[in-house]
Design brief:
By secondary structure, the protein is an alpha/beta fold. The protein folds into 2 domains: about 1-85 and about 255-300, Ribonuclease Z/Hydroxyacylglutathione hydrolase-like (Metallo-beta-lactamase, Chain A, 4-Layer Sandwich), CATH 3.60.15.10; about 90-250, 3-Layer(aba) Sandwich (Rossmann fold), CATH 3.40.50. About 35% of the residues are buried. Helix 3 (about 120-130) crosses helix 5 (about 160-165). Helix content is about 30%, strand content about 20%. A 7-stranded mixed beta sheet has the order 1-2-3-4-5-14-15, covered by helices on one side. Strands 8-7-9-6-10-13 form a 6-stranded parallel beta sheet, with helices on both faces.
Length: about 300
């Protein structure tokens, strides 16, 4: 199935219009993940703007979302954090680096479970940007993602800084090295972000046994995942057994989504008088966001039901 998909796919550049019969599609940079896009769909004189997951502030790795999309007739906007403000990114960065220094200087290991694509690399770039002086190691699928990202520098905010940061990180590619790195103070970055698999499971099991160590959660932890169990109950499950985590546990906000303020900033820049659909959030967030949009901007907005058909 994967090969069939690849054989029937084609690469599109940002801001390059692509026609499918009477419909034109244009992709714009989303700032959310490498190669991520928002979409403008044009047909019969109407224009639809779908944000998907969007980040207008960017990150150490990615540029901010491109909002120069012109006038639109329908806006479909994510609502993930429409009812919450996130910790400012520079504050999260400084707090993470400060914590990393504290852990390593007490002879502990800071384990950072992170998504393989973009989040793992961003954490490495943050540590390097603040001149973190100690060892940083990376493991798992993130290493393959590094190579893919290095091959596509046009998607990166600063390709040279990214290349330098990644090259200075130690790559863990064998079980022998994996077993040795957990005996040396430093920082280990490894997927999976929610600890559902990958080499991160090994690091969790080993490093949770020592109170000098720390686990920094920098990714969203879904309900029912090992990461959520660790965050809520300080528990680690493996081999059919559940043990208490002795290592310190901290959460740092590094979301790839816009916060409430930034979502409203998108609406401030909207051109035209579009209808608005609020999606990708829980029911309360989508509904409340739609009500606020209607009240503040006068746009006809609502949270659509599944299978609902909208006419522009």
């Amino acid at each position: 199935d994967l090969m069939n998909m690849l054989n029937h796919s084609m690469n599109l550049d940002y801001r390059s219009k692509f026609g499918i019969r009477d419909v034109n599609i244009t992709l714009f940079e989303s700032g959310h993940v490498l190669g991520g896009s928002t979409v403008i769909v044009e047909a019969e004189g109407k224009r639809i703007f779908y944000t998907g997951d969007i980040n207008t502030r960017g990150s150490k790795v990615l540029r901010p979302a491109d909002l120069d999309v012109g006038e639109i007739d329908l806006l479909i906007i994510e609502s993930t954090y429409s009812q919450a403000e996130q910790v400012p990114r520079d504050q999260s960065e400084k707090e993470l680096v400060k914590h990393a220094l504290e852990v390593v200087e007490r002879k502990g290991i800071l384990f950072i479970p992170a998504f393989s694509v973009e989040r793992a690399q961003e954490i490495a770039c943050v540590l390097k940007a603040y001149d973190f002086p100690y060892k940083i190691a990376m493991d798992g699928m993130a290493l393959k993602a590094n190579q893919i990202m290095l091959k596509h520098p046009k998607f990166l905010r600063d390709p040279e800084v990214f290349k330098r940061s990644i090259e200075e990180v130690q790559s863990i590619t064998s079980w022998d090295r994996r077993k040795r790195v957990i005996k040396e103070p430093g920082v280990i970055i490894s997927p999976a972000g929610m600890l559902v698999g990958g080499s991160g499971v090994f690091y969790l099991q080993e490093l949770s046994k020592n109170e000098l160590n720390s686990i920094a959660l920098v990714s969203y932890q879904g309900e029912g995942t090992p990461g959520r169990l660790l965050l809520d109950k300080r528990q680690v499950t493996f081999g059919g057994n559940t043990i208490k985590c002795l290592a310190e546990i901290n959460r740092f906000e590094f979301s790839g989504h816009n916060s409430r303020k930034e979502l409203f900033e998108i609406l401030d820049k909207v051109k035209g008088n579009p209808s608005v659909l609020t999606v990708h959030g829980d029911n309360i967030a989508c509904t409340k966001f739609a009500e606020e949009i209607n009240e503040k901007y006068g746009f006809k907005a609502h949270a659509p039901d599944a299978t609902e058909v909208t006419t522009v």
